[in-house]
Amino acid sequence: xxxxxxxxxxxxxxxxxxxxxxxxxxxxxxxxxxxxxxxxxxxxxxxxxxxxxxxxxxxxxxxxxxxxxxxxxxxxxxxxxxxxxxxxxxxxxxxxxxxxxxxxxxxxxxxxxxxxxxxxxxxxxxxxxxxxxxxxxxxxxxxxxxxxxxxxxxxxxxxxxxxxxxxxxxxxxxxxxxxxxxxxxxxxxxxxxxxxxxxxxxxxxxxxxxxxxxxxxxxxxxxxxxxxxxxxxxxxxxxxxxxxxxxxxxxxxxxxxxxxxxxxxxxxxxxxxxxxxxxxxxxxxxxxxxxxxxxxxxxxxxxxxxxxxxxxxxxxxxxxxxxxxxxxxxxxxxxxxxxxxxxxxxxxxxxxxxxxxxxxxxxxxxxxx
Amino acid sequence: xxxxxxxxxxxxxxxxxxxxxxxxxxxxxxxxxxxxxxxxxxxxxxxxxxxxxxxxxxxxxxxxxxxxxxxxxxxxxxxxxxxxxxxxxxxxxxxxxxxxxxxxxxxxxxxxxxxxxxxxxxxxxxxxxxxxxxxxxxxxxxxxxxxxxxxxxxxxxxxxxxxxxxxxxxxxxxxxxxxxxxxxxxxxxxxxxxxxxxxxxxxxxxxxxxxxxxxxxxxxxxxxxxxxxxxxxxxxxxxxxxxxxxxxxxxxxxxxxxxxxxxxxxxxxxxxxxxxxxxxxxxxxxxxxxxxxxxxxxxxxxxxxxxxxxxxxxxxxxxxxxxxxxxxxxxxxxxxxxxxxxxxxxxxxxxxxxxxxxxxxxxxxxxxx
DNA sequence: ATTTCTTTGGCAAACGTTTACTGGAAATTT
DNA sequence: AAATTTCCAGTAAACGTTTGCCAAAGAAAT
Lengths: 369, 369
What we know:
- Two copies of one chain form a homodimer.
- By secondary structure, the first copy, chain A, is of the alpha/beta class.
- In chain A, 42% of the residues lie in helices and 15% in strands.
- Chain A has helices at 19-26, 30-37, 45-58, 64-71, 88-102, 116-128, 143-151, 175-189, 204-219, 236-248, 261-273, 307-323, 350-354, and strands at residues 76-81, 106-111, 133-137, 156-158, 169-173, 194-198, 229-231, 255-258, 283-288, 301-305, 331-333, 335-338.
- The longest helix of chain A is centred in the C-terminal third of the chain and has 17 residues, at 307-323.
- The radius of gyration of chain A is 27 Å and the shape is elongated.
- Residues 1-13 and 354-369 of chain A have low confidence and may be disordered.
- At the A-B interface, helix 4, helix 5, strand 2, helix 6 and helix 10 of A face helix 4, helix 5, strand 2, helix 6 and helix 10 of B.
């Protein structure tokens, strides 16, 4: 009767701990173990206790692949971003990772570097891994690639730029509020000659920011000088070359608003090199409130858009789509102005000449040399 | 005989495309499809052709979970980093992602934020997902957590800091070369009073950088003034407060070397606020060659350590460990000095007074106001 | 004491692949 | 032409879970 269990001796190398091992150790069936782990309420308290003890004792943890294979749920979300080197994104990723992990999800990051081919690869990767949803924060041109996702019924949420006909949900960023605050802040200081350096205009979010700027200017009753409306690309370099172009002309605006912080920081750099004092001779406002912007010189006045909030809302949206695919109530992300020291009275203004510490009319300083 | 296949009609919602569907479409067995996909050489060319056609026609792609479950290979690597907001890391991540993806791997990012609890969670996540290896670039204290990985035989590679008794492979960074070049560059300009702002010293890599600095100083025959040896924390803020502390004293060094670029940029910021001209009155050198460092004012002289190279080597190491776990030949990452404009002759030196354009003895400028 | 209902745990069938084995046909040797 | 070998495709057994269904056991109702 014996001599039957020999063959399984030196089978494979090290076998990983099984749900069966736990079951045996706790003297229950594997079904009970599974149910215990998944918190199914029908298992007896005592048994559950025993199972947990065994799990701890053996230091067991379930195999995710097997789990998702059978349950059909990968517990994976994709995060599609355009460029990981823009400081805005790491902070976003961090936020997203945080919520995801604390909800038992894992994230797959795809950074497309503005390249359609890479984008395609990213989408493909995500499909293969069976993501349960994708959060998109890229520019607006890559629709065909995203359609692939839509056609496979992968829930999506656009974190920034709602496409013309949304294929998924969209977080609506209230660009207008923050930008208007910025414009009115400038107006209150006496500025009327304000320039704007946009992001790449094919990008929907850039377009929206610019529109918000124009509208806000309109509200204060001034039509911006066309030659002060430049297109950047949301990078440091872009901001730099835009301002370089601006400096070639004779007439300068007294303030520049930028579509994102990196652009503004680039602007600051060039202005400082050119010997143009900020904020004394020209004021600068950014957008995003990247961590770095507090540490440039002078600390950047900027419009804050919370990465944490975006990340959290995106996650929740994605989860909500899973449950009720039709529910498309957009969530709104608010923005608000953070006044630091890159803005002050326009050059030559009476106020500017009187006040000794121009630009310090709001406190929040760091150091004042 | 018929009337047997009715029940499978309205079973579940949408069934994803199967390997069986492909098999049926190509009129072969599923085994053949699998073999075709995996490039097993024994399948007939014609048949393979037919299979590929079907795959294309149906737009099929395999289910990764099922694949890894049976093959035991998750094709997942973990990447453990300390802080995603330090610009060094996104560039590293990008590099790692690139090699990984192009080799059919996916990466799981864990950013620990210097927190042991989070680290633990990260490790756990990676174990659950069955990673085939983990690349570690964090500081040196979290051994106990990493032991968990080691005890489960997960291959590891340390990308920066080799632990006392390596549990895996380690990339050896040749800190000495670049830092020596930096020190000698300063020495050649005439500096002897050089300060150093280190990273957090419990972090192995910080320690090594500092050691390299001290050794290099020794080589040029000067013993650094202890009061100019400060500890930072590899953040902008850390660099700032270190320099603030330095400025409180009367005697200043003529040059400061920093353990990383963010520290150096912080230093630059404080110096500029305090009205200390860089490089005229004090020279500054960073470490890492972060993208940003080219765009600060003045552009930062720094020691370059290639993220791409580290990422690639780490990936290759990880892969190599899989094949031959014993082979521990360390790979060496080189570093080299990049001279920009934050270094020049020491203040008050004869050379400095003569030369009109101090610091411009190497060309590579960007703009010169 | 019997019946009915409720709880609870086990059995076994999926999930979509890979891969060891197997057997039939084709190719080679005798 | 028979015997042997080689080649390749198909069959079926894993992989580690979840979960529908069912039966045993206890509780409640008759």
